[in-house]
Predict the 3D structure of the following.
Amino acid sequence: MKLQTKTISDSRIWDEFVKGESPWSLFQSFTWGQLQNKLGHGIENIGYYDSDILVAVAQTVLVKARRGTFLHVRHGPIIVKKYQQSFSYWFFILTHLKKIARERNASFVRISPLLELSLPLLALFNKLNLHFAPIHAMDAQLCWVLPLDRTEAELLQNMRKTTRYLIKQAEKIGVSVVLNNQINTFMKLYAATAQRHGFVAHGGVVEEFNIYSPKNEIVLLLAKFQDQYLAGAIIIFFGSYAIYHHGASINSKIPASYLLQWKAIQMAKKRGVLVYNFWGIAPQDNKRHPWRGLTLFKQGFGGSKIEFVHAHDMPVSPVYWVTFCIEWIRKMLRGY
C-alpha cells in the first residue's frame, strides 16, 4: 500500500465516490462543502489514492468555536468498503488529518464516519487511539428511516394508528400543504420552534436553502390552515435518499405536522427516492432526552432505527481536554 493525497475539485468525481461508498453521508457531499465555504469556513476536499485509484475521501472543515478550534470531518472519512476495517488505511488518513490540524492550529480532529456500529469497528478505533467524543448523538448518528419500496396504501397501513388518524383528520378539516420558496416564512416558524423548545437554532439555514435550490436538491413544504402557516419542513435529496433536515411549527392543536410529513413522503416516493430519512432520534434508554417527543412523532410513520458509530476525536494538543470538559458538561446539562 502506498497512499497519496490530492485535492479534488471535480464535483462529479467527488459525489460519485461518496454516493457509491457511503450514500448516507450528506455532510461529505460536494454541495455541502460549497455551503461551508459560503459560510466562511475553511474546507478542503481531500482524495486518497492507491496506485492512482481513489480509495478514500475526507472533506475537512475548520471549526473555530469558543470551546476550541478543531478539524471536523462530518460523516467521514469515507473509505472504500473492502478497506473500511483496514488499520493501515485508517492510520495513514488520520496521520495526514492530524498534520493538517497542526498546520491550522487546531487542538484535535473529529471524525464521524457513517459506518454501522459494531464491536470490531470500536476495537479498531481504540487501537488507533481515538477518543469517544463527549458530544451527544448528533448528525443523524442514530436515525429513523422509512423504505419507500411499497405502495402508499402499505405505507399508511404500517403507520401507528394514531398517526394515520391525525393525517386523515388534518385532510378532513382542510389543512393544505404547499411547495414554495418562502424561506422567510419558514424561518419565522423555525424561530418560534427554537424559542418554545429552548434550543439554539441552526445557523446557515437560509444559505443552505439558497445553494441547494438551483440544483433541485432541496424543497420547502409549508402546512397552512385558514390562511395561517402552522408547520414547515426542509427536505434535502442526496442520491437515492430524502432527508428531513429541518422542521418547524407553532404550538397548535391542528395536526398539520402529520399531514406535512405524509406529503413529504409522497413527494419523495414520486421522485424515485428509495429511503426517507427522518434524521436524528433520541436513544431509547434516555427518557429525559430533548428529542423524546420528536422521536415518538417520527416513529409513528413506520420504519426502523439505524445506528452508526459515534463521533471520535484525535487530540493534537493538550488544549483538547479543555474542549472535552466543556462539551461533556454541556451534554449533561442539556439532558443528552
The chain has two domains: 3-137+308-333, 142-307. The mean pLDDT is 92. The longest strand covers residues 53-65.
